[in-house]
């Protein structure tokens, strides 16, 4: 597989279709841009198109166009979100400031 894991989807949050995520990226604000599309594992649960991203009490919450309410969001639980390797951001040295290119 030539994709990069960026998050694992957790349980639903609230009634509007948001889900919690366990991050596997150090740049969530850059990764989770509205309109971004993510492949999933299992593939039958995706692809998912990001509708919203917010942080509530330190927990990242995402909603997807494919899950308009809590019931639909429950169907999103457990898959992993992946992006193609070609769109993965370049690695950076720990402690170095982030640049506009990554």
Automatic annotation (TrEMBL):
Domain of life: Bacteria
InterPro entries assigned to the protein according to its UniProt record, in alphabetical order: RimM_N, RimM_N_sf, Transl_B-barrel_sf
Chain segments annotated as coiled-coil in the UniProt record: none
Pfam families in the cross-refs: RimM
Every RimM N-terminal domain range: 6-75
This protein's name: RimM N-terminal domain-containing protein
The organism of origin for this protein: Flexivirga alba
